[in-house]
Amino acid sequence: MKKVCAFAAVAAFAAAVGCRTVPMTNRSQLMLSTAASENELGAAAYAEYKAQTPPSANAAQQELLKRVGAAIRDASGVEDFDWEFTVLESDTVNAFCLPGGKVAVYTGMMRLFANEAELACVVAHEVGHAIARHGGERTSWSYLQAIGTLGVSKWGNDTAQTIYGIGAQYGVMLPYSRKHENEADLIGLFLMAKAGYEPKAAVDFWKRFDTGNSSRLDELLSTHPCDATRVANLTEHLYEAEALYSECSEKRGFGVSLINGIGQ
After folding, report:
1. Residues 176, 94: contact at Cβ < 8 Å?
2. How many whole angstroms separate alpha carbon 84 and alpha carbon 232?
3. SS3 content of the chain, % helix, strand, coil (to 5)
């Protein structure tokens, strides 16, 4: 009974002091981890990814990603990330942004974009996860679960190691929830519009893989649900993104056309 009461007290305290507002959506979220600790995990994981999967030797793709990434970075207004943008050489069809602005797109993913704006759509979506600190939010809820499981009376080295393991797993490695995916979609849509990319490209991209073509995205779809609901949500907010796009002083539109991936 004491443990139950103690956990309830911890949860109540967390709810009272561990709240943060997500940029651009203004949603309140539980946040018990620090941005610095999340960014440290992100940097370590990014180094591991690059060690396991080397950067692509395709200079044209690297240049394109860096150009798009810089535009999204500037639109985000986030200055405390140590931003990096790298194309990784692999047939894997996926992309990610780890905490701290560590962005990677696999060459398998680069082959699917019809134009530069579609790349911006995916990069902006992944950056949306990072600036919303979705990994830290999942870690925070996991902290509470771990405390309840282990018992607040058992704090010590073993518990600290368990908490750190949870932070690494939930803060960096695991797929995001549907709620987080929808929020990253919205943030990404606004970011690409603010960066000067035509927001319709986001709807075009996901609609293209909403039916029979989705098998080409098996790896991506394992972490990024693609269905009519996603397309409908993007379409619903398209007018807001178009307003941001109309205010952008440097319009990039759909950017360069990509046929089977630049440099392929």
Report:
1. no
2. 31
3. 60, 10, 30
Torsion from C-alpha of 207, 71, 28, 236, nearest 10 degrees: -30
**pLDDT recorded at residue 83:** 98
Residue 169: exposure state from Cβ atoms within 10 A (0-12, 13-18, ≥19): middle
Q: Using an 8 Å Cβ cutoff, are 18 and 69 in contact?
A: no
pLDDT tens, residue by residue, 17-68: 478 899 998 999 988 889 999 999 999 999 999 999 999 999 999 999 999 9
| pLDDT lower than 70: segments of the chain | 1-17, 144-176, 210-227, 260-264
As to burial, measured by CB atoms within 10 angstroms (0-12 exposed, 13-18 middle, 19+ buried), residue 3 is middle
pTM of the model: 0.81
Instruction: Compute the half-sphere exposure of residue 56: CA atoms within 13 Å on the CB side of its CA.
Output: 29
**For residue 70, what pLDDT is reported?**
98
Going through the chain in order, the beta strands assigned E by DSSP cover 19-21, 28-30, 84-88, 95-98, 102-106
Cα Rg of the chain (Å, integer): 19
The residues that are catalytic are: 126
